[in-house]
Amino acid sequence: MMNMNVANPSDALLEDLSEEMIIDQPGTELTDIPASAPRRDLPAMMRKIPVTLTLEVGSARISLQDLMNIGPDSVVELDVLAGEPLVIKVNGTAIGRAEVVVAGENYGLKVIDLDGLNLDMMAP
């Protein structure tokens, strides 16, 4: 389990990974590593890497002049029709589509399809 008491989540990830894997050090031969040392496969380690999941509503291409004229009551038309699914992105890369739903007091997403992510590679 990841140590949640560390201030930076990346530090906690590195701490957990360092406990579970052997880091290759110059001058260290495979025969120097004890047989009892833990070995982890790459997909298991990859599942612990934090990623940013975002939903993209749409986009608009406007001139700098139009951008300068945007104010509190401005409306910018997007390139997506109302009611169309939103794009799911992981670290900026599109992986599927979703709809916005209400989950308790927060917004959530309902996945419609995932087509840009190889989930089989990440399976335990």
From TrEMBL:
This is Flagellar motor switch protein FliN. It comes from Duganella sacchari. PANTHER family: FLAGELLAR MOTOR SWITCH PROTEIN FLIN, PTHR43484. One of its GO terms (cellular component) is bacterial-type flagellum basal body. GO terms for biological process: bacterial-type flagellum-dependent cell motility; chemotaxis. It is a peripheral membrane protein. It is found in: Cell membrane. InterPro entries: FliN-like_C, FliN/MopA/SpaO, FliN_T3SS_HrcQb, SpoA-like_sf. Residues 46-113 form the Flagellar motor switch protein FliN-like C-terminal domain. Pfam families: FliMN_C. Belongs to the FliN/MopA/SpaO family. GO terms for molecular function: cytoskeletal motor activity. Keywords: Cell membrane, Cell projection, Chemotaxis, Cilium, Flagellar rotation, Flagellum, Membrane.
